Amino acid sequence: MAKKAMQAGWDEITTTLTVLHYLKNHSPEVGRRRKIPQLVWDYLFKIVWKAMHEAKKEP
């Protein structure tokens, strides 16, 4: 998702927020971690960082 957005010309901030929003609403892992908010945010930031890192790599 992040790679397609970056290829379409989206800037990094818009791509990051879009991926974050999607994961927050659709990830089953977030549902499992909801009881402890810090675990949710740690997971989300880690996954979004990995997605952005992969999206920035050259093909």
Any overview of this molecule?
The structure is a single chain. This protein has 59 residues and is an all-alpha fold. Helix 2 (12-26) crosses helix 4 (37-56). Helix content is 80%, strand content 0%. The mean pLDDT is 89. It has helices at residues 2-7, 12-26, 28-33, 37-56.
Distance between the termini: 15 Å
Shape: elongated
Instruction: Kindly state the number of beta strands.
Output: 0
Catalogue the unreliable spans: none
The number of helical segments is 4
| Mean pLDDT reading | 89
What is the element layout, followed by pairings?
Elements: H1 2-7, H2 12-26, H3 28-33, H4 37-56
Please supply descriptive tags for the structure shown above.
59 residues; mainly alpha; 80% helix
Q: Summary?
A:
The chain is built from four helices and no strands. It is an all-alpha fold and 59 residues long.
